[in-house]
Amino acid sequence: MPTDLQALRDLEQVGLDAATADEAFDRFARLVRRHLRVPAAVVHFAIPESQVLAGASGVPEPMQSDRLLQHPGTLTNVITARGEPVVTSDARHDPTLRDNYLVREMGLVALAGYPVFDLRGRAVGALCAVVDEPREWSQDDLDSLADLAAACTAELRLRAERERARRIQETAVRANRRSRFLLSLSEAFANANTMDQVEEVIVEVGTAGIGARYCAFALADADGRGITYRSLVHAEPQFPQRLRQTKLDEQRPLAEAARTGRPLFFRTGDEMFSAFPGTEELCDPEVGARAYLPVVTAGEVVAVIMLAWERDRGPDQDSYALQTGLAHYTGHALERARLLEERRESAKTLQRAMLSRLPEVPHLDMAATYSPATRSDQIGGDWYDAVAVDDDATMFMIGDVTGHDMRAAAKMGQLRSLLRAFAWSHDESPSALLSLLDKANSGLGLLASGTAVVARLERVAGAYQLTWSTAGHPPPLVLREDGTVERLSVLPDMMLGVRPTSKRTDHVTSLRPGDTLLLYTDGLAEQRGTTPDQWLSRLQKTLGALGDTATAALPVTLVRRLASDDQRDDVAVLAVRVRAAAPSGPPSPGRPATAERKLAPSLCDVGPARIWVDDVLESCGVPMPLRRTVMLLTSEVLTNAVDHGQAPFTATVEVDLDRLRVGVRDSSTVQPELRDPTVTEFGGRGVQFLERLASRWGVDRHGGPARPTHRNGPAREGRRTGKTVWFELDLG
């Protein structure tokens, strides 16, 4: 699939980004079937994560109707990626193609495919003839297919030219209405409150409004010595990534505009190359006119806008005014965006200062995050807290005070402090604590309104009992160890600040080792136009997909996946996972702690198994710095076993007072090798990690003659055919 974002945007503009049938390309597919006498033919175009079948004939259902192929690495994708024909009489015998999805799962055997190119010569799709049995392609077959692929390219380019002509016409109309354009320019920047939004407006105005083909935006560096493009996505083709940053003393037009504060206009590419000889080898010679517009605020150049056209042109009076207006409005927008960003960072710092640090509780893994609304520079009323009552009980709290201003934040801080004090000083149930809080809220005159959940997690006979009470808050979720997600839905009690004497209720469930409790505020997944059940289901589905995510990363990952860039509400998330302890208990003199876990023959089980190893080590008192090293080595041996070994797989952990040992057994006799991979090789470094970081490591054979295949340690005999790859670290 092409990685050129401009190519994907061009496909979208001509309507080839949607999974719908296209009559013109369907006709090409039918011609291929008729002339080459093949059972199926397709014309596909690559889009992110999938391919659309604009033309298809003879393709099995539901693909023929859906017109979508969602399997990365398919043969058709290979054609687009290479930009050259791919012809095979039997893909099953081709080592580079036989593991492909179409070959492995859909029975494709013979294939002849030719790429389809867009206006700028980028391969964005392919015309393919496919057969479900071996076939030797004749030269006439390939010539016919090449001609039809060229016709597809011509059709695509014709559409692109039509679309470009339409856009140019629209630009000419807008250029003739300069005053209206300047008004619209003001409106466009009115809602640009971040640097990303400012850049989006600049690109849109520069291309659609002024008519430039390419547009780039550079910001002055903080040290005042250089200037850097924020993005090269919309820059002219083939612009070198290494030139993204420019020193102000360099002889380049970007540096000249930033250094002098004067706009630069070049009617042709040759005119710019004549003024700056060193740029001829760095810029696309096919690009025509260019303009460099400095953005000046408070007498200093803070940014430069670069515009480029595919043809030669001179800046007439209207276009000069539009470009000058763009730079002027950009300056005001940048000042506002920077001011709001500074205020927002200050508000975020203040908000986080008001949130307490989570306590360290044995056998519990906790993490939390707070994310302010992107549209506001003020702090809100979302909060979380945790209080370790004693060795066996911990209180967890989360809430959302009504409002998004300093007053709401102040009330949030007072309510949170009251509830924290009640949780520490009163050995009461969650419902009783919420009742105390609501009465204090009324009696002390805070008069705050909002929602909250209070949960008590208590260890009882080796298990954990969860007791919770909700004051109008979204229900807690529990990610079970098996990957299922349970919604703790109950009838919520009255929210805080309405009726302090209202009755509140406790609810009880159990958490087992590996289970994760999730408390959150509604800003995490709530969406306009959806019911609570719909966005809660979306949250449950996302949480279930993160079963192998470490607890420390879970809250932040949820916020990134569910809260959009245009986040309208604050978000607080608190995750608590019950760790799995060693079944034998912690180590003691003469008795090591041991644990064993079966692994599924899938890389999806590597993450949960790694977390399980960390849990066992934590229950044995292994310090965090050493556990980090163990996690790295454990990931390597687990992944290597599942990737290169044979099922069944078993992970074992053994900890005594002097050292810890982790081993992974499988049924393969293939031994890991110590390699020295090159920089460009993807793998081969796992054994290097063992060699450098482990105190000892080795491989024990099982079911055969005893052979020492270890390093710095004795070999151990097993009872099963295969091997155990193990490593040890000293605890001293």
Summarize the structure.
By secondary structure, the chain is an alpha+beta fold.
How would you explain this protein's 3D organization?
This protein is α+β, with helices and mostly antiparallel strands and 732 residues long. The model is unreliable at 706-712 and 714-718 (pLDDT under 50). It contains 18 helices and 28 strands. The longest helix has 38 residues, at 317-354. The strands form five sheets. Strands 3-2-1-6-5-4 form a six-stranded antiparallel beta sheet, with helices on both faces. A hairpin with a 2-residue loop joins strand 16 and strand 17 (463-471). The chain is globular, with a radius of gyration of 32 Å.
Descriptors:
732 residues, alpha+beta, 25% strand, PPM-type-like_dom_sf, SpoIIE family protein phosphatase, GAF, hydrolase
**Spatial strand order of the main sheet:** 3-2-1-6-5-4
On the 0 to 100 scale, the average pLDDT is: 83
User: Which range does the strand content fall in?
Assistant: 15-25%
- The count of DSSP E runs of length 2 or more, i.e. the number of strands, is 28
For the termini, the CA-CA separation is: 52 Å
Helix count, DSSP H or I runs of 4 or more residues:
18
Which word captures the global form?
globular
* Biggest sheet architecture: 6 strands, antiparallel
Q: Report helical residue fraction.
A: 25-40%
Helix-strand makeup class: alpha+beta
**Structural Rg:** 32 Å
- Unreliable spans: 706-712, 714-718
